[in-house]
Amino acid sequence: MLSALDRRDRAPEEGAAAGLQGFAVDKTFLSSLKGILLETELALTFIIFICFTASISAYMAAALLEFFITLAFLFLYATQYYQRFDRLNWPCLDFLRCVSAIIIFLVVSFAAVTSRDGAAIAAFVFGIILVSVFAYDAFKIYRTEIVPRATQGDQQ
User: Which domain of life is it from (predicted)?
Assistant: First the structure.
């Protein structure tokens, strides 16, 4: 009988190595337009989180929540893991993620600028830039994914 110590010292079986390949990062996705948009959204969201932490900590939860949601979408798309959940409409979820982020960051950015603190004003500026990036991402999703599906449904 093998103990846990003996199993740890052995080379991994073929099945274990194949199970880890499901999380292999697709480097072509990371250099595509969608990958660059998600990376930009992630970086700007983190910068806004830092600005809110330095000035108005009451608004940092919104930035942190959007950071984790964007990180999850980046992970799912970069590893192609989203294809395992074929019952979900991923373009629609991604579009709703962008629209909700636009609303959240517009409200939080304009609320933060009223404090007249330096970090809050920086968060406002980065928030407006991030809103434009999310709006462009939502526009691209709508044009490439949602409109063609609607026209395919009309033709059938």
Answer: Eukaryota
The token duo for 23 is 């999380």
Provide the pLDDT confidence category of residue 155 given band limits of 50, 70 and 90.
low
DSSP state of 79: T
Cα distance between residue 19 and residue 98, in whole Å: 32
Residue boundaries of the structural domains of the chain: 29-147
Kindly state the tokens that stand for 48.
């806004």
Q: Which helix (H) or strand (E) holds 88?
A: none
Q: Which residues of 41-67 are buried (b: 16+ CB within 10 A; e: fewer)?
A: bbebbbbbbbbbeebbeebbebbbebb
How many angstroms separate the CA atoms of 47 and 83, rounded? 30
- Answering whether pTM is above 0.85, one says no
Which stretches within the chain are classed as H helix? 4-9, 14-20, 27-30, 33-54, 60-78, 90-112, 118-141, 147-155
